[in-house]
Amino acid sequence: MTTLTINQLETAAFAEQILDAELYESVLDETFSLISVLHAAYRIRQSWFGNKVQVHIINNIQNGLCPENCKYCAQAVDSAAPIEKYRMKSEDEIISEAKRAYESGAFRYCMVASGRGPSEKQVEFYSGVIQKIKANYPIQVCLSSGLMGSDATTKLKAAGLDRLNHNLNTSEENYAEICSTHTFQDRLNTLKAGADAGIELCSGIIVGMGESNADLVSLALQLRKLNVQSIPVNFYLPIEGTNLAAPHSLTPEKCLRILALFRFLNPQAELRVAAGREYHLRSLQPMAFFAANSLFLDGYLNAKGSDAANTYQMLKDAGFEIDSSFTIDELSAESDLVGVGPSGSEFDIKIKSKADLRPTL
Q1: 179 catalytic, yes or no?
Q2: How confident is the model at residue 334 (pLDDT cuts 50, 70, 90)?
Q3: Of the residues 100, 108, 110, 263, which is catalytic?
């Protein structure tokens, strides 16, 4: 361990080699300075993604009313979080929000439906919506709708779905601590069904749920084994009414080291700094993009994020470009297209209102 250098970790990433799992834990402690870790992560990120950042926008097409008991989730069956709950949005509403996402600079439109998994009727509905979005807007489409089997994923692939999201959230060893209504293997099975159907995979983590450094390395390796193309790294937001305690041992520096770890172990994956970037990274948010190459705009599932103008200005000030049909300057001038949330400099957890969740009504 004492002979390991940051250059060895970087070289292994470029060579697509994996070192002993224990060695990667050194990224998460003080073995290497934060600057050296981020500098190495940036060289890897730049090699595959240049200086561009992909913008993703989430649409909660169904919110709350979920039978699962994931402790971290404001939409869980036993959550008392004060969220807006509603059944599936109409096709017109979902497509209108896809148009809005595209015009807001989104590279990918992420539809998220609460629940254990979709019925056959819902899969048919999704298929029709996906076909219409793809026919009308040059935007990538991702769907997150719980547990799925091969019949569902095959139909969604035929409809033109680009990506299937199903987060593993934590390591297999830690999973029973956060949920009991389904298993880690259930989630793996859903990802396998998506991969077998030929759909790109999006799967990530929620950091701050009692996991160890070994758990973080284990999950990063699991995602690599699955060849996951997109990895959202969420930092747990302790929304009042959920059944999980406040985040464990998260500091801006630890968050940055975690992003770098996932870059070392998944060098070619799109790495997204997702929920909680404002709350946990605070003034160090721009440094996240030395490892990550995508973000969520306009908030998360049930929590607001920083407003579009602040986000685009942050990226511009840090010297990054966005992967979009529009420039940062054009989008900043049209920032009223996106709902305005709290400023990133004074971030507090705020629940999305009905107007935030259903802006085209």
Answers
A1: no
A2: low
A3: 110
In the set 45, 70, 163, 224, the catalytic residue is: 70
User: Which of 100, 142, 163, 179 is flagged as catalytic?
Assistant: 142
**Cβ atoms within 10 Å, residue 240:** 11
Q: Residue 157: pLDDT band by 50, 70, 90 thresholds?
A: very high
Instruction: Using pLDDT thresholds of 50, 70 and 90, give the confidence band for residue 357.
Output: confident
Choosing from 100, 108, 187, 272, the catalytic residue is 272
Which single residue is written with the structure tokens 């979009």? 324
Q: Which of 45, 73, 100, 163 is catalytic?
A: 73
* Range 194-208 average pLDDT: 97
Catalytic choice (66, 108, 179, 224): 66
Is residue 142 among the annotated active site residues? yes
Identified catalytic residue from 179, 202, 255, 257: 202
Domains with residue ranges and CATH for the chain: 6-357 (3.20.20.70)
Retrieve residue 66's tokens. 């979920």
Residues 3-47 pLDDT 10s: 689 999 999 999 999 999 989 999 999 889 999 999 999 999 999
The pTM is what? 0.92
Return d(Cα 78, Cα 179) in angstroms, integer: 12
| Residue pLDDT, tens place only, 246-302 | 777 799 999 999 999 999 999 999 999 999 999 999 999 999 999 999 999 988 888
